[in-house]
Amino acid sequence: MIARRLPITPARLGIRFNAVGITGATIVLFWGLVALLAPLLAPYSVGAIVDQDFFGPVSSQFWMGSDYLGRDVLSRVLYGARFTVGISLAATTLACFIGVTLGMIAAVAGGWFDTGLSRFLDALNSIPHLMFGLVVVAAIGSSLPVLIGTLAVIYSPGAYRFARALAVNINTMDFVTVARARGEKTSYLIWSEILPNIVGPVLADFGLRFVFIVLVLSGLSFLGLGVQPPYADWGAIVKENIGGLPFGAPAVIFPSLAIASLTISVNMLIDNLPVKIRDRSA
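Structure tokens predicted for ABC transporter permease:
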């Protein structure tokens, strides 16, 4: 029977939303909108000193208190969302694009190309992620392109291994064999036969890697190698206000809660997106 392409729909991907998944998606969407609209939502400029007191309490004027310099924490958290969400999303997209593309090519090509690329990326993946990020950023300098590129390099080997494992299984199925017998090119096999059958699990893996990258980015910023002043992501906000931790300063608590809410909600979302591979030869 001749293989035919079917459209990619949520039903085909096996996507099912429940209350937990909807809650996670709502929080993720909230932080995405905050990242986009931060300049419109923030009551003060990101670097403006607006309070005479440092580590000021929550009040009607400062909803999240003030930081160690008297800056509005709410404004800095809102602006910080742009960097935390933006850098993490860009790095995750780049890492998954590189990893998934190479994984599918390796699965179809096989032979020396598959072996050599797999061993190289295994060696790269064996380097501790935070240590690798520290060395690269400290050597080159911290900037948005460097942070995005470094995080993408760190997590592309994992995306490669995941996509390759899926693609190897799909590559042995009957509809791929039929397409190969028809004389279809490798590019057709990859983008028209294999990718539509692994896109669901890849999207779930995308969400998981986004969480990992948020945490690594926050760790780099906490060590002073992330987004540089006067701008800051959430990890940098925690780091610069760590002196207020013994006092329970809101300037430490709220950015920490922001990191936790984003990572937990992404996990809630991807844990409630059950996906499965379906044979498209029917």
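The radius of gyration is 22 Å.
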